[in-house]
Amino acid sequence: GSDMDSPLVDPEGFPRADVDVIQVRQLRVSMIETRNDLRLLMRRIEQGLHDLHSTSVPMSTATAAPPSGPMPQSVTSLSPDASSEANEPASSHERRAFARVASLSPDSPAWEAGLKKEDTILQFGHVHSENH
């Protein structure tokens, strides 16, 4: 067998008889190109995340404490456009939770919005129990 670092020639400088040298070289080139592509993509993603976090979250918001005071156990809507009639069940008494908050990470968007563990989600944008 052969790996990325094993020699493709024997001690006398001749191609090894136990490996397909051309195939191994092609596979090595493909692996190196794939690694380079991955590194480039990871750098782009990292830079994009740095850019996103540096522009979208002001420092005062990032260090702010969560809202104080009692929070409702049930959240009816998390978006301003959630009241469109085409996306809601016929009446509010028909609404039932389609999700439950299992856990929260400190400083996450859900935590900053005031959600608590075991809160139920009745509607999120246009998603509710009738269409989910």
UniProtKB/TrEMBL annotation:
Keyword Chaperone: yes
SUPFAM superfamilies reported for this sequence: PDZ domain-like
Annotated Pfam families: Nas2_N
Region called Disordered, residue ranges: 51-103
InterPro entries according to UniProt: Nas2_N, PDZ_sf, PSMD9
Biased composition (Polar residues): 54-63, 71-90
Membrane-traversing stretches: none
Alphabetically ordered keywords of this record: Chaperone
Residue ranges occupied by any Nas2 N-terminal domain in the UniProt entry: 2-54
GO biological process: proteasome regulatory particle assembly
Gene Ontology, cellular component aspect: cytoplasm; nucleus
Domain of life: Eukaryota
Entry-linked PANTHER family: 26S PROTEASOME NON-ATPASE REGULATORY SUBUNIT 9 (PTHR12651:SF1)
Record's protein name: Nas2 N-terminal domain-containing protein
